[in-house]
Amino acid sequence: MTYPRESEPIEERLADRIGLLRTPARPSRWAAAQLRRLDRVDRAAYRAVAGMSTPWLDTPLRVVSDLANFSKPWLATAAVLAFVGGPGGRRAAATGVAAIAVTSLMVNQPMKLAGDRRRPDRQQFGVHEDRWGPMPESTSFPSGHSASAAAFAVSVGDALPTMRVPLGVAASVVAFSRVYTGVHYPGDVLVGVAVGALLGRATSTVARRIRSAP
Predict the structure, then answer these.
(1) Helices and strands, counts by H and E, the chain
(2) How big is the CA angle at 181 (ends 177 and 186), to the nearest 5 degrees?
(3) 3-state DSSP of 88-106
(4) Among 1.10.606.20, 3.40.50.720, 2.60.40.10, 1.10.760.10, what is the CATH number of 10-212?
(5) H or E segment and range at residue 140
């Protein structure tokens, strides 16, 4: 799916809405200016990644990006932990799956509906076609793949500290692949990671308190 307009930033929409609010003029102008500045940075970062001359990364990161659909790597990891990890592995797996469920519900429903940001036009930004995979039809902000990856990495890492580094690296690769393949702006990914990390930590905290309850 392609879009005829490049200028569909969430920051611009928010800036326009702030301008319509009945608030003091100076704070409104300042807030709108900061949002528009963030949009320029976001698009500049997207163009910088699109312009990377790294053809050896094209196929691997496209495969990673597509493989992460429906949280397949994280659910597979949870299954392995539950099967070979003993009681601790089963607890970590259950916490990780719960974190994915909570995060997917929050990101893919209210947040994406509220953001309503169009996907990037990869052709207009110059993303090389060798990187392209299927363009999702959902809105762009925030990145659900990045959010789920961060939620699983944080929640399972809390339960099994030895998994923090490998899961953190894997989640980072997935998040970067979403920008590299052109399906998300960097801002979408950064917000997705932040939301996923917060919800992953919240899920692991709740799970720990449930287990320690008398």
Answers:
(1) 10, 0
(2) 65
(3) HHHHHHHHHHHHHHHHHHH
(4) 1.10.606.20
(5) none
| C-alpha dist (Å) from residue 195 to 127, 136, 171, 189, 199 | 27, 20, 13, 10, 6
Domain boundaries, the chain: 10-212
Distances (CA, A) of 14 to 8, 138, 193: 11, 19, 21
Report helix, strand or coil for 126.
coil
Q: Would you put residue 2 in left (φ > 0), alpha (ψ -120 to 50) or beta?
A: beta
Phi-psi group of 168: left, alpha or beta (phi > 0 → left; psi -120 to 50 → alpha; rest → beta): alpha
Query: For residues 182 and 137, is the Cβ–Cβ distance under 8 A?
Result: no
Quote the pTM value: 0.84
Write out the chain's pLDDT in tens, 214 residues. 333 344 455 555 555 555 555 555 555 566 666 767 888 888 999 999 999 999 999 999 999 999 999 999 999 999 999 999 999 999 999 999 999 999 999 998 888 887 678 899 998 898 999 999 889 888 888 999 999 999 999 999 999 999 999 999 999 999 999 999 999 999 999 999 999 999 999 999 999 888 887 6
